[in-house]
Amino acid sequence: MGEHMQIGEVAERTRLSLRTIRHYEEVGLVPPSARSKGGFRLYSESDVQRLLLIRKMKPLGFTLEEMADLLGLLDHLATEDPDDPRTVLLDRLTMYREAADQRITALREQLDVAVAFADHLQQQLDVHTRRARTP
Amino acid sequence: MGEHMQIGEVAERTRLSLRTIRHYEEVGLVPPSARSKGGFRLYSESDVQRLLLIRKMKPLGFTLEEMADLLGLLDHLATEDPDDPRTVLLDRLTMYREAADQRITALREQLDVAVAFADHLQQQLDVHTRRARTP
DNA sequence: CTCTACCCTGACGTGAGAGTAGGGTTGTCG
DNA sequence: CGACAACCCTACTCTCACGTCAGGGTAGAG
């Protein structure tokens, strides 16, 4: 529980850059759960988990603000038991899921286009290297 | 051959924004092949093709500068017949192809991660909607 | 000539960081 | 205790690929 590590170790473990981690604090996405007397950022294990979760979200193309919102949503759902505002939360969560689906479709298209283009490049290479080797 | 269209039509046909097309000129990626007396950009059919090709490259994550370079390379290969500097060109082309492959691998990973995350969201939704409906 | 639809430049804003400068902190060793 | 390396801090400017005004000019039909 007193397992606080400083930014360098967090960077290693999450493979995020120091700058990125600091940036996430700047925008309120992942504030370090403590600071040393001297001002060093100190992160807990769950901070690291949060950062790793964010890394997983990144391909979905959400903004940092949206990720903060979504993380808050998930925390809220996990924590709170009274079922009053739950439907609202679930509606919002549903929106994120739909956005994610759309993004996945877009990613698939991008991948196809990318593969097609790479093939095109390879064809150019084939054509021109053959010409050079078998005149 | 006198088939010059202005920026709006180009935007429609390529589905790029006016701003983007202008930006591509700003950085020297696709300068319009002519201007009207009054200063309107006039694009030819092959300009449009170039823009469409650029759109295909976009998922590969090259910078505009790299795309300009690559396009130049392809033009050069298609046009020039003397085979002196060709090996150099082909080497560079090979580098781009390798970069493309790497990027494709990255895209596939991103896609997997994205799908996994979307599933995670869906699970959250399932869990919490079930609780709400079947107490 | 006027009207509308379209276009222009120029300048500033944005998101998500990268990079740099200049300086402070921690913890270990002698 | 002092010295030292390794690590960290803030604050700032820079990047890329555009978006977003603001203010004004152009093309061509009627």
Automatic annotation (TrEMBL), chains A, B:
Cite the entry's keywords alphabetically: DNA-binding
KW DNA-binding (keyword) present: yes
Q: InterPro entries attached here?
A: DNA-bd_dom_put_sf, MerR-type_HTH_dom, MerR_fam
Q: Which residues form the HTH merR-type domain?
A: 4-73
Q: Which domain of life is it from?
A: Bacteria
Q: State whether keyword DNA-binding applies.
A: yes
State the PROSITE patterns in the record: HTH_MERR_1, HTH_MERR_2
What SMART domains does this protein map onto? HTH_MERR
Extract the PANTHER family matched here.
Answer: HTH MERR-TYPE DOMAIN-CONTAINING PROTEIN, REDOX-CYCLING DRUG-SENSING TRANSCRIPTIONAL ACTIVATOR SOXR
* Protein name per the record: MerR family transcriptional regulator
Q: Which organism is it from?
A: Kribbella karoonensis
- What lineage does UniProt assign to this protein's organism? Bacteria, Bacillati, Actinomycetota, Actinomycetes, Propionibacteriales
